[in-house]
Amino acid sequence: MDDKETERAEVSLEPPKIQRLEESVVNRIAAGEVIQRPVSAVKELVENSLDANSTSINVVVKDGGLKLIQVSDDGHGIRYEDLAILCERHTTSKLSKYEDLQSIKSMGFRGEALASMTYVGHVTVTTITKGQLHGYRVSYRDGLMEQEPKPCAAVKGTQIMVENLFYNMIARKKTLQNSSDDYTKIVDLLSRLAIHHINVGFSCRKVGVYHGAARADVHSVTTSSRLDSIRTVYGVSVARSLMNIEASDNDPSTSVFKMDGFISDSNYVAKKATMVLFINDRLVECSALKRAIEIVYTATLPKASKPFIYMSIVLPSEHVDVNVHPTKREVSLLNQEIIVEKIQSAVELKLRQSNESVTYQEQTVASSPSSSLGTSKELQPKLLSPGSQSQKVPVHKMVRTDSLDPAGRLHAYLQTKPHKHLAENSSLTAVR
Ligand code: ADP
Ligand code: MG
User: Fold this and answer.
1) What is this structure's pTM?
2) More confident site: 369 or 80
3) From the CB of 74, is ligand 1 less than 6 Å away?
């Protein structure tokens, strides 16, 4: 070893110095995680509007959200005194102590969304609270107000504008510009939120660089019927092929939950599955449940194996951990495997029933041309096929033990597969 080499070896053995990152760097790194792309900003803003008890939420987007995202609501507004700290990190009106997380009902609680947006974009807030003669407008950068709030005319509620998203994150901006526009994702998000929050009217439109606002791509009105809302948002043909579904369990030793929703029948044929899932009113993803349902469809309705599913699951709030993901895209549930299995059984039963009633309907039509199609709807499944089981058998067993039945053949597959992939997916393995 010559001198130089010895020197190099010594240098590389020295540990690098650890230094404290500047706060602005920390904040910008964290912001990039919460606001991953334009649609994440829209989600956070709309959830804030929902938390503010709005009944109308309107979204305007320019250049896939990179130029402009504007969310206006008619909610309770923001107090003048709170404007100074509104966009600082970890400032929130929704949580005060850690234990509150157990019973949190609001969408937000981390106090990070608005702050994050000010680190990666230019945020302007216009808001008015009840009983005030005028509102205030103020812009923020890096968590702080750029100047004192200015009085201005305002309509009830809050309007938040995010401009030039990722102006200071060149790499992020470039990848986003190269990939397809986030606008479709934004429309998809609002469609999902709209069919769950049926007491809120949503709209979403994009404005071109040269043209004014286009026709709204999502436009929902407040209604009391979920199916009406699905019809408005997803169209007549989707709504027409939906069946209501419910499942529940109330046994603390297995699982406690209530699910209700809509699932598509054999008439719904699509290129890809749509699964709109709300758990305790949060829009979340649950790949285990999605897969479990798709397996049932593939086995029972192979031609309509890409279903449309809307499900709302309600559990005791202490059974849900909402703080597992910075964007709250996933939650973990107590006894998730059991819940998934129960819902899977309910879907399987429903599909088999609808399949049987279709078969029966065809048979009736074939044997007696005068019979009316309408009556087949009222027929009870137990009256249908000669091979159908007694209703005394518990529903899930009834579905899974008949090995001669085409749907029953699923049994062997379901016994092994779902358990295997549930265990594989660690973020969803949630039995505490
Ligand atoms: P979080 O939602 O987690 O509390 P945010 O950064 O999203 O954090 O928002 C900070 C606070 O700003 C909220 O707690 C809420 O009090 C207020 N706020 C944000 N958006 C609105 C809105 N559209 N209407 C009324 N208040 C809002
Ligand atoms: Mg929020």
Assistant:
1) 0.81
2) 80
3) no
